[in-house]
Design brief:
Layout: H1 5-54, E1 55-58, E2 61-64, H2 68-80, E3 90-96, E4 101-105, E5 137-141, H3 149-154, H4 156-163, E6 166-175, E7 179-188, H5 190-240, H6 256-302, H7 308-334, E8 346-348, H8 350-363, E9 370-374, E10 380-382, H9 385-402, E11 406-414, E12 417-424, E13 442-443, E14 448-449, H10 453-464, E15 468-473, E16 479-486
Parallel strand pairs: 9-11
Antiparallel strand pairs: 1-2, 3-4, 3-7, 5-6, 6-7, 8-10, 11-12, 12-16, 13-14, 15-16
Helix pairs in contact: 1-5, 6-7, 8-9, 9-10
Length: about 475
């Protein structure tokens, strides 16, 4: 399938126009050819009538009327129409259908009939059962091959005579006691074929020039038609970059439904996200007051000595209060996680990774290890900056906690996804079911149920932008976290 609208418009428009030009040219060629054939038919019909006006049939013989003036006029008419042409491009004769013999020919007016060989005349495969009528019938045929085929092959001019087509005017008539005859007036249509060939050559040149002009016009038209779509795309990119909030330019009516739908989606998403954030803020502030009061009471309780049972209970309360605070903080951060429908500008991961490397090396300064970053400046993904910092911070912190000597981050692009591998040389993931670490509340370090928010938050962030997270075995025989992030 063609993915480009401009390509579709170019191919469809160019194809329709060129097919139209071809059809128009074919029709013009056919009409021109038919018109010339009709003219030739009218000419042969007129010649046949003129000749019949001079012919006389008597005692089974055809001849010109016995009048010197008539014979002179007949010779002039034959000469004017080139009916005595030795190349046989024009001819007129009468043939006896039964004996298949030429009983009269226009060439006999210029030379005696006993000097004309029978093989001199062109013969055609005519319908013997043509209706007897004074109105001529017409046929377009090639002559039958002569008896002397060797002479035909050795004489190029004669070969051309027998390979070209002729237009024939045929009149059938019956003479009592003598049988059926056919009066044939023929002319070569080689000149018409040559004109049509020249016309086809000129049409081919015209077609080529038309194709070039149409292609140039289509290209210019495609830029004019696609210009609003490019402008629409630039506005969307401006929204991604945070330079504007809505699409507010005027566009053709075909783009208005998309504009309105997108503006509605952006407005709804903005309001929904704000309401979600406000609700979580209100909830956090509501919970902070009782948590602060409970912590204050625990602090006072620690100032005096109590039995071990009371101390143990206080310890549990303190742990649970700290956990509630972490949960509240996590939910507040989750309010900022961008969902899949949001429009975020693609940004490089390299600066974030280097910033986190400096921080984590200080945090784990009591542990000698190295953080390698193999990601160039072209490695980008479509993610909110805060989400990116939290995602890589959680995963790199886990790798730093469990590694022995090396933590390595590498990135490469696979189609429309940026694939990021975070490797370490630690103990690796559990063999039985590593995917369980992506579930909320599971911690591998303690091998027991606990808060375990880090991996769960990472999974939610990646899923929210349409990505994927996988747990694999590292080349360093440790853990590998593979991220598939949209670019």
């Amino acid at each position: 399938m063609i993915s480009s609208l401009r390509s579709r418009q170019l191919i469809s428009g160019f194809g329709v126009i060129m097919v139209g030009i071809l059809m128009l040219g074919s029709m013009l060629h056919w009409f021109s050819y038919s018109y010339k054939i009709d003219q030739k038919q009218a000419e042969l019909k007129e010649i046949s009538y003129d000749i019949l006006g001079y012919l006389n049939f008597q005692d089974g013989q055809f001849s010109i009327l016995p009048d010197e003036d008539v014979k002179a006029d007949a010779r002039k008419m034959v000469t004017d129409h080139k009916l005595d042409d030795v190349t046989q491009n024009h001819f007129a004769y009468v043939i006896d259908i039964k004996d298949k013999k030429i009983v009269w020919s226009a060439s006999t007016l210029s030379k005696p009939s006993n000097e004309v060989e029978d093989d001199y005349y062109l013969r055609f495969n005519l319908d013997k059962n043509l209706k007897i009528s004074f109105e001529p019938s017409f046929a377009q045929l090639k002559p039958l091959p002569p008896k002397d085929l060797q002479k035909l092959e050795s004489d190029p001019l004669l070969k051309q005579t027998y390979t070209q087509e002729y237009l024939l005017s045929i009149q059938s008539f019956f003479q009592a006691d003598y049988g059926n005859f056919q009066f044939i007036v023929g002319a070569s249509i080689a000149d018409i074929e040559k004109e049509m060939q020249d016309m086809r050559g000129k049409f081919a040149i015209l077609l080529f020039l038309s194709a070039v002009l149409v292609l140039i016009a289509q290209l210019a038209l495609s830029f004019w038609v696609v210009a609003p779509i490019k402008e629409f795309e630039n506005e969307v990119k401006s929204i991604e970059a945070g330079e504007r909030e809505l699409i507010d330019n005027h566009y053709p009516e075909e783009l208005l439904p998309i504009k309105n739908a997108l503006n509605g989606l952006l407005s709804y998403e903005k309001g929904q996200k704000q309401r979600y954030k406000d609700t979580l803020d209100d909830l956090a502030h509501s919970i902070k007051t009782p948590l602060t009061a409970m912590q204050h009471q625990l602090d006072q309780l620690h100032q005096t000595k109590h039995p071990p049972q009371i101390e143990a209970v206080a310890k549990v309360f303190e742990t649970q209060i700290e956990r509630m605070r972490e949960i509240v903080g996590h939910q507040l951060r989750r309010a900022m996680v961008t969902n899949q429908g949001a429009m975020i500008l693609s940004q490089p991961i390299r600066p974030v990774l280097f910033r986190l490397r400096e921080t984590l090396l200080k945090v784990h300064r009591d542990k000698p290890f190295e953080i390698r970053i193999n990601a160039d400046e072209y490695a980008k993904c479509r993610m909110d900056a805060e989400d990116m910092m939290e995602l890589f911070g959680n995963l790199l912190n886990n790798a730093c906690r469990f590694c022995q000597n090396i933590v390595e981050v590498s990135a490469h692009q696979d189609n429309n996804m940026l694939v990021i591998d975070i490797d370490d040389d630690g103990l690796g993931f559990p063999v039985d079911n590593p995917a369980k670490l992506l579930q909320r509340g599971v911690r591998e370090d303690s091998k027991s149920d606990g808060q375990g928010i880090g991996m769960a938050v990472s999974t939610e962030i990646v899923s929210a932008i349409g990505g994927k997270i996988e747990l694999q075995v590292s080349p360093y025989v440790g853990a590998r976290v593979r991220l598939h992030l949209p670019v």
